[in-house]
Specification:
Helices cover 33% and strands 20% of the residues. The chain is an alpha/beta fold. The two termini are 48 Å apart.
Amino acid sequence: MKGTSLDITEDLIHKLKEIVPGAFTENKLDVEQLKEILGEIVNTDSERYQLSWAGKSEAYKVLQASSTSTLIPQPELSIDWDHAKHVFIEGENLEVLKVLQKSYYGRVNMIYIDPPYNTGSDRFIYPDKFSESKEEYLRKLGELDEEGMMMKEGFFQKNSRESGKFHSNWLSMMLPRLFLARNLLQTDGFIFVSIDDNEISSLKLLMDEVFGEENFRNILLVRRYDKNINTQFLDEGLKTFNTGAEYVLIYSKSASSRMNPVFREASEERKTQGYWKGFWNDADRKTMRYNLLGVDISAGQWKWKEDVAQEAVKNYDEFLKKFSSKMSLEEYWQSTGSKKKFIKRNPNGNGVNQGVEHWIAPSDKILRNTLWQDIFASKVPQGFDVPFSNPKNPDLIKLLIEIVFGDLTHGLVMDFFGGSGTTSHAVLDYNHEHNSDLQFITIQLPEMIDEKDEAYSKGHRYISDVTRTRINDVIKSHKKIKNSKLNFENGENPVGFKSFKLSNTNFKIWRGDFIQNEEDLVNQANLFTQPSKENAEGYNLLWELVIKYGYPLTIDVTPHASDNSTFYSVANNRLIIILEKYSNIIQKKVIQLKPKSIVCLDALFNNDDCLKTNAVLKLEQEGIEFHSI
C-alpha cells in the first residue's frame, strides 16, 4: 500500500521518531518510507559493520547528481588577477566541489576544514524532505529560474536538536562533500577535520567509510580557551564539565602516505639535560634483532641498526674510561660535535630490554604527540580585524601544513568551509616564513550575517565578505613587509588571488524532460542554434570552457587580437578558445601558435558548412584537434 499513513498515539510517535525519524511527515507515519529505512538499517543480505542513518541513500544520490553550475571570474575583487596563484570562491561548497572535479582531480596535497559542529544552533544546507527530488525541493522554495536552475548559492536551515533527524541531517550534509574532497586529494594527500564533542563519534565512523579505516592516522586534542561557565553551578552540582579541547581528525588518501614530524618547544631543563630511555620497541623487524650487551631478544626489535648500536656502545665505554671524571655526558656530547650516540646497560633494569638503554640528547624541541595543549584551537590574529566568533588559529593550521609538506615548497591546500579565512591566512604566513610557494583554494558560502553581529556593523553582509577581506588584508600586510626590506615592485613576484563566484552555466541546457512530441523537439533544437545564453558575457564563457576542459583556475590565459576580434590561448597556447569571430586570418594566426586543440562556438560559422569543413580539414593537417560547441 504505497503512500499509506497511520494515525498513532503521541507516545508511540515520540519513540518512533527517535528510532526512525525519516519515516514521518508531521505526525503521520509513512509505511513505505518506514520499510525503506528499516531495510537500510537491517540489511540481512549484506550484514556488515557500518554507519547508517535516515537519508543516507539520498545523500549518495546528492553526491552522484551532476552539476550545471560554473564559476564566474571576478577580476575586480581580486589582487593581481593575471599572475595570482591563490583562489577564493564564493558559493555553496557542494556545487563548487563538483565544478572543480575535472580541473583538480588528484591535484590537492592537503585539505583542512572546520565544518559546522552541529551544536543545535548553527545553520547549514540540507534537504528537509529527502523524498522530494532536488528540483521539487528547490522549486518549492522559489529558488529556480525559468530553466529550472538554482538561482541562489544556497538555502540555509537551522538544524535544531528537537529535529528527529538532528544527526542524520548533519551526516547527509557531510557525506557527499567528503567523497568529493577525497577525489581531489593526491595519492599521498591528507585531510584534517576540526570537530568538537557533538559529532566526534559520528564523524570518525563517516571518515572511516569515506577514506577507509586503514587511512585513519590520529585524533589531535587541541586546547580551547577556558570558560568558567560552570562556576555558577558549583553549589548545585555540575551536569557536565566545561569543554577544554577540540579535536582534529587526520586521514590520508593512501595507507602508504607518511607524515612529517612536527615539534613543540622543550622546557629549559630539557634543553640542557639528556636522559636514558629503553632501547627496545614492539615493532616486528627480524633484521633489527641481534645480541646487544649480552641481551638477545626473540620478539620486537632494537631501535637502531646493529652497526649503529654497537658504535653507540663503544662511544659510552670511551666516555666512561676517559672523560667521565672530567665532565658530564652532556658536556662530552657537545665537545664531540653534538652528534655521538650512546648505549649502556643498566644492571638494575628488567623487562624485555633487560636494562639496555640509549641516551636522549638535550634538545630545544620535542616531537609532538596527539596532545596539543600548548596550541589554542581559536585565536584572533594580531594586527588584523577579524569580526568573527572564535576564528581558528593560524598557528594550528601552519603546524598541520608542516605535517603534510615538510621541506616541500610547492603544493596546494584547500579549505571548503572557509569561514573567516584562517586557512588562507596560514598558507600566506607559512610561505612568508618558510620561503615557500604553496597555493590555496578557499571556498565560502555567501551566508548572510545577522544585523546584531560585529561583522555587520563593519559593513560586511555575507560571511564570504569577511573571508575575502581577510585574504586581502593579509596579502597587503605581507607586501608592506617585503617593501620595507626589498624593492618589491621592481624585483619580487607579487602575491595575489583570483576571486570567483558560483553561478549557473552560461550555456543553454538541453531539457529532454520537456519534450513530449515532435514540435517540442524542434523548439528545443531551435533554442540551441546559439548554445550560449543571450545574456552570457564573453569572459564568463571563456572561463567556463577553461574549467570544463580541466585546466586549473590559476592557469595562464592570454588574449590575442586578430581581424578586429580577440581569441584566447590557455596554458602557453596548449588550448585556443575562439568566442567572437572565426575567419581565415584568425585561423592562420592560431596555426602559428601551434596549439594542441581549439574550441570554437559553432555559431561563428554562420551556417557556412563549407567554411567549417575547410577549417576542420586544415587544422587536422596541422595536427590540431578541433572542437565546436
